[in-house]
Amino acid sequence: MKVNGKPTRSIWLADDGWAVEIIDQTKLPHAFEISRLETLDDAARAISDMLVRGAPLIGATAAYGLALAMRADPSTEHLERAGKILFATRPTAVNLRWALQDVGARLRALAPGERAAAAYARAAAICDEDVAINHAIGEHGLGLIRAVWDKAEKARTVNLLTHCNAGWLATVDWGTALSPIYLAHDAGIPVHVWVDETRPRNQGASLTAWELGQHGVPHTVIADNAGGHLMQHGKVDLCITGTDRTTARGDVCNKIGTYLKALAAHDNEVPFYVALPGPTIDWTIEDGVAEIPIEERDGRELSEVTGRTADGAIATVRITPEGSAAANFAFDVTPARLVTGLVTERGVCAASTEGLLSLYPERHNRPEVWAVVL
Ligand code: MRU
């Protein structure tokens, strides 16, 4: 997508051909800053401190983290160590495990001297594949938006609601949930997006609003609690979110608050779709509530808010009383029964075992047994 008119991805190789550059997403929307990753520890810190975030981008950054590690020391011991360090950065998005296993398996089969080049090549391929996957998700999701517009006899704007940021900043390009919205906008379908602010880190208010604005998509930021009210008043045609991990039966784990939106959508008969790339499916588990590890982050993300003051400075202020405890659960699970459909790179399917297997028939032979680390 474009930033100030310039085509930009969320991660790329620096001009020197070995360092990795990312957009520091903790600075958006107030500043567009590029951060340079030179070491394994830089990559791990970028993921855990959320300079990069979003399931697909976490996976892509981890792949480049292995490449940086192999450049420094291609020994088998260091490969295993690097995998463990990267795997420990964030627990919920399964793309992290997927990328580490994919790259790690390829590297272990090679002599140490061949590993760095192979890791860089595979990381670049993962990025390119992610872009193609997300564009395909967009095309399939576009059909859903077009159907709403056709039903309204092309007479009015289509109102969509999204939670968190599942746009191009969360992937390498295009996004998952936002990809259909960009394609609809580009196709001339009038769309408007209700953007949940997404407390506590405000990925909606800070990132989704910013990237929709960069692309010229009409949008309105709303408090997280407003979605149900809007749905009751017929102001949402369709909800669409991303997911950090989808189980083999179609439960989806996404940013905290997604479940409440799905409940409100169900109660108001508003379609609730979830967009995901294949690597976000965890074929080894069924029950999302019982089996997906939910990240708990520092309570200060809840008790403090950062923003720009009237004089242009960036300031962090406390909003809770001194001494009040804050619990910061980062994700929740929406059971498959509340999901109208899953939008993947292979098409739209029911959120069910049968639905997923209809699109991924090669998984009939699961479970593929994955080692826990690499
Ligand atoms: O904590 P974050 O910002 O990494 O959470 C991101 C999300 O919840 C996204 O919706 C999800 O990763 C899907 S991104 C295409």
Question: Helix and strand layout, with pairings?
Answer:
Elements: E1 2-3, E2 6-7, E3 11-13, E4 20-23, E5 34-37, H1 40-48, H2 55-72, H3 76-87, H4 94-108, H5 112-151, E6 158-162, H6 178-186, E7 191-196, H7 203-215, E8 219-222, H8 227-232, E9 238-241, E10 245-247, E11 252-255, H9 258-267, E12 272-275, E13 281-282, H10 288-291, E14 296-297, H11 300-303, E15 304-308, E16 314-318, E17 328-329, E18 331-334, E19 341-344, E20 347-349, H12 353-359
Parallel strand pairs: 6-7, 6-9, 7-8, 9-12, 10-13, 12-19
Antiparallel strand pairs: 1-2, 3-4, 4-5, 10-11, 11-18, 14-17, 15-16, 19-20
Helix pairs in contact: 1-2, 2-3, 2-4, 2-5, 3-4, 4-5, 5-6
The protein binds 5-S-methyl-1-O-phosphono-5-thio-D-ribulose.
